[in-house]
Amino acid sequence: MEAVPARARAYVACVALLAVVCLLPLPRTHAPWWAIGLLAALFAACEHPLGRRFGGTFYPVLLAGAFLLPPPAAALVPVPAALFARGEHRPAPLRRVWRAAQPSLAVWGAAHVHWALGGRDAVVDRDFPYALLPAGAAVLAFCLILTVLDGGILALTVGVPAPPGRGSAPARRAWRGLLARSLAPVAVHGLAGLMMAVLWRSPYGPAAALLVLLPMCVSWWVFAQYHRERAAHQATIRALVQAVDIKDGYTRGHSERVGQASVLIARELGMDDERVEVLRFAGILHDVGKLGVPTRLLRKDGPLTPEERRIIELHPEYGHEMVRGISFLGEARAAILHHHERLDGSGYPYGLAGTRIPECARVVAVADAFDAMTSTRSYSRARPVPAAVAELERCAGSHFDPRMVAALVRALRRHGWHPAVTADEPAHDRAPRQRPAGTGTPR
């Protein structure tokens, strides 16, 4: 937000003005100020950097306010946390206003829906399961308002580029998927907020309601740790791939495309999401062992000598050694080691044949060969996709698993193939050089 467009600033100002309008009836609601203050303090504690270590934005507190307080009073709960928060990014004042106004409007809308459906009486009377209906509607309203506001600010600040040939509709792409991604987590927060509200209205009072936050804090902290660990995994993979791309400039982008093709095959085969993710890792990291191969061999223009070819053929073993201790890769490590094996046993490094080759390695082998043929390399010009598919089908049963080839063909018919440029310079500026003698397997 450092260079925020004027239209985005105007948008934030309009949202803030609307939030102020929602707060104006507050004096007439006769809401208990101690309750507003307690919920605001709880939310501010959760929004503090120390509190964020235990889960970040804590919607149960906001939704409990929506279930307990009149709409204008509930809208006030998130405001102090945002206005008095330490500014971490510029422009800090604009961010503070946005982080105050956006949840304020969302809570106001949720409280209105909850009260309109009789949720206040259901909470006071602890009327289950009826209390779930207005609470669920309030959560949906909360998500919808957050989605509309988030999509608007995304479209106006960062923008969403249009895919080639598909026109320009940045607004629609800015909102796409926001509601689906937020609904399930916020629904869980809504249940916790409802539990807080019910206990708050019980004979045990607010002290009992605070107990709901303890298991939520623990579970949210675990969830946050999972996402931090996943981000660390992604950073590790990016660092390894960038190192390979820097060393072997002619195959820059190859690893990402092999990962993409591996995902197409895995999904076509009906693999579950976890295995699809592993296959993506396998495709991206399949050539990481090239870090152990002399750069002069990777960039050699002419044919390789038998000794040079033997050195290059060590890269699957080098790669396996590099990633052997990375536990989250799972069976991707076997794909890195065996992606140059062939179905007839003529591959390397161990000459495995048939089903002795791990399934993930058979997937990556097809993806690797396909991208090698459809990309301009130092020793060959890119082939058209139909020609590459025909070559894969010709070699199915000898070099490649026919099932994997067929899966890639079906996926290409359904989704097409839109790879990135192989290297920094345009493909037409790179003249193909003599292909090294050998079996035709990509280096």
Automatic annotation (TrEMBL):
From which domain of life does this come?
A: Bacteria
Citing just one GO molecular function, the answer is: hydrolase activity
Positions of region (Disordered): 420-443
The residues that cross the membrane are: 6-26, 57-85, 97-117, 137-158, 178-200, 206-224
For the HD domain, which residue ranges apply?
A: 251-373
Chain ranges of the HD-GYP domain: 229-424
Q: Which Gene3D superfamilies match?
A: Hypothetical protein af1432
Keywords, ordered alphabetically: Hydrolase, Membrane, Transmembrane, Transmembrane helix
**CDD domains xref list:** HDc (cd00077)
The EC number(s) given in the record are: 3.1.4.-
Q: What is this protein called?
A: HD-GYP domain-containing protein
